[in-house]
Amino acid sequence: MRPSQVISDIVQTFRMDPNGDRVVPPTGFTARLTLFSSAAMAFLAVFAMALSLATGRLADRWSDELARTSTLRISVPEGQMQAQTTAALRILETTEGIAEARALTSEDQKALLAPWFGPDLAVETLPIPQLIEIVETDDGYDAENLRLRLAAEVPGAVLDDHTRWRKPLAQAAARLRGLAFVSMVLIALTTGAMITLAANAALSANTQVIRVLRLVGAQDNFIARAFIRRFTLRGLFGAAIGTVAGILAVALLPKADTAGGFLTGLGLQGWHWLWPFVIPPLAAIVAFVATRLAAYRTLKERS
Amino acid sequence: MIELDNVAYSYGGGELFSSVSMSLSPGSFHFLTGPSGAGKTTLLKLCYGELLPTAGQARLFGVDARSMGRDDVALIRRRIGVVHQDCQFLDHLTLTENVALPLSTTGKDVAAEMDNLRDLLGWVGLSQQAGQFPPELSGGERQRAALARAIIMSPDVILADEPTGNVDWDMSQRLLTLLIELNKMGKTILIATHDLNLIRTAKSQVSSRVLRLKDRRLWAAGADL
Ligand SMILES: Nc1ncnc2c1ncn2[C@@H]1O[C@H](COP(=O)(O)OP(=O)(O)OP(=O)(O)O)[C@@H](O)[C@H]1O
Ligand SMILES: [Mg+2]
């Protein structure tokens, strides 16, 4: 099926007079089942979507922080500071995975400390450690190895790589986002499978109807459309109900706050609230394609 | 219009008939008789593409039925009105909707044809029953409705399988008159029936041929009628 063909098909299917719908007898039970299952699937899809968007946000934020520097802190008696700093810089420069290492000037350090001690602090008179800012390459460096080398040559150095522990978390978040995406695809496929089953049930229940329609000169398109229209509309309405319910449920999650962190960040934010509204049309497309395939297959079999 | 050329039909139980040749030329009027189970209904089914002959050739409007796809057969059926022996209605639609079914399935505007529809139902004496559902109708009423549905599209050919099987003599005369009128308008008619009285009455009003399906062959019936 080419896209243009699908579109013209959709137009054809829904342009027809409402009389066309009457030729297939209404079946309350399959109708309700289809409605219910596409609503349930849409509800789940909203959560999968919220999870995907939220973990996406987390992964982005944590990866940003990863790009930041780690710091090396050198605390030694005043006299050895210069020598150890130089030694440390030399080691860092020859360490694989480090893009840049820069010893902070006393001006820099003053600026860092100003929030706590005020702007007039005489840094030089205080026994504060020398800080070296390290910028990693994308591959990162081997922190253990670096620690060993520093311990041997710059005993006063402490490597603080506090942001590096987030790397596995960021990876997990990215993985979670992938899983949420896979879930959405699975939900779509399951919806398609359910609609196919329901459409097949309706087609076999209406064998006699199809026979009579054939006898009076109905072509395949006419017969197929009567079924396609029905199941597409059911898929659409069911998904609309499920989507609204899902959005309400997500909206009722506790508000994101600083204390909540990860869990409360699971809701939708800003324009992301618009995303769930693609679910009903998607469900309709899935129902359309599934019913169309089922209908033409059945019509071909019973020629 | 419809030609069977040396046709045979067999099914699991054996051969129903063979060496059957028949030609319905435009404007002709045929009767088909024969004992029950001889294969009259089966022969009609070959004429509207519901069944394919197991040997020989069935040509519908000049086209070999075997070479037609489903949609081709559908198009052919719009030119052949069939009164099925078992009527074949949709039970969830009213009588009017059933009679109008060939119109709605072919995308015609049913509302625009409403006057025709009403006249037609009046002709077959079903004006009172227009809003009823098929299961609520008597056998004769159903057959009359089937005839109405067969001619709603103004087809070139009308194949009627026992159209008067369940109706009283007056009504069967009336239906016969309707079919004769249609024949005078140029329609090709084939009626399968057991009712020899009906055939005799018709012969006095219209020139027709009588075919008899017997002993697995199709014969032209002679003066014994
Ligand atoms: N596919 C088939 N399978 C089994 N039996 C069949 C099949 N097709 C035809 N028959 C048999 O062939 C015979 C002829 O049936 P058909 O309906 O054509 O007869 P008919 O002349 O119309 O009879 P009636 O006058 O009672 O309507 C029947 O005995 C029927 O059971
Ligand atoms: Mg019969």
Topology, pairings included?
The complex is a heterodimer of chains A (303) and B (225).
Chain A: H1 3-15, H2 19-22, H3 28-66, E1 70-74, H4 81-93, E2 98-103, H5 106-117, E3 130-136, H6 143-153, E4 157-160, H7 166-205, H8 207-215, H9 220-251, H10 279-301
Antiparallel strand pairs in A: 1-3, 1-4, 2-3
Helix pairs in contact in A: 3-7, 3-9, 4-6, 7-9, 7-10, 9-10
Chain B: E1 2-11, E2 14-24, E3 29-33, H1 40-47, E4 55-60, E5 63-64, H2 70-77, E6 80-83, H3 95-99, H4 101-105, H5 114-123, H6 139-151, E7 157-161, H7 169-184, E8 188-192, H8 196-203, E9 209-214, E10 217-220
Parallel strand pairs in B: 3-8, 3-9, 6-7, 7-8
Antiparallel strand pairs in B: 1-2, 1-4, 4-5, 9-10
Bound molecules: adenosine-5'-triphosphate and magnesium ion.
Description:
The complex is a heterodimer of chains A (303) and B (225). With 303 residues, chain A is α+β, with helices and mostly antiparallel strands. Helix content of chain A is 65%, strand content 7%. The radius of gyration of chain A is 32 Å and the shape is rod-shaped. Chain B is α/β, with parallel strands linked by helices. In chain B, the strands form 2 sheets. A 6-stranded mixed β-sheet of chain B has the order 6-7-8-3-9-10, sandwiched between helices. A 4-stranded antiparallel β-sheet of chain B has the order 2-1-4-5, with helices on one face. In chain B, helix 7 (169-184) links the parallel strand 7 and strand 8 (188-192). The longest helix of chain B is centred in the C-terminal third of the chain and has 16 residues, at 169-184. Magnesium ion binds at residues 40-41, 85, 161 of chain B.
